[in-house]
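Pasting as-is:
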Amino acid sequence: MPCGTRARRRSRSHRGTIYLTLAVWIAVIAIMAFGSAPWLARWVVGLIALVIGSTQSVCRSLFALLIPPERAGELYGFNAVAGRLSAAFGPLLFGAVGAVTGSQRWALLSIGLFFAAGGALLARVALPARSVDA
């Protein structure tokens, strides 16, 4: 809810909210990779709870602003296929990096590359005037 409220404010943007959620996801990955204290698990769960729903909803909302209405069905279908591919490539990358390095720490950090790449790609997207940039 906090991220959804942030995205709706006129002084904030979809892009800024997505960057915030990406930063939280990257922090979660770093904590899981390098943290060893038992209490960190609760912090990780709390951080994930803050962003898991809003990441998808704000991204989908931005996607709706970017696509032409007459091609919505086609592009949402493409989005669904891309989502299924990422659900396959993420674990594949995790397993491959874990097998090559022998370390789940490096495997976790490799998943963070997807979040960083997504943020870098988002920076190159021209947003419509309907989405106020922070």
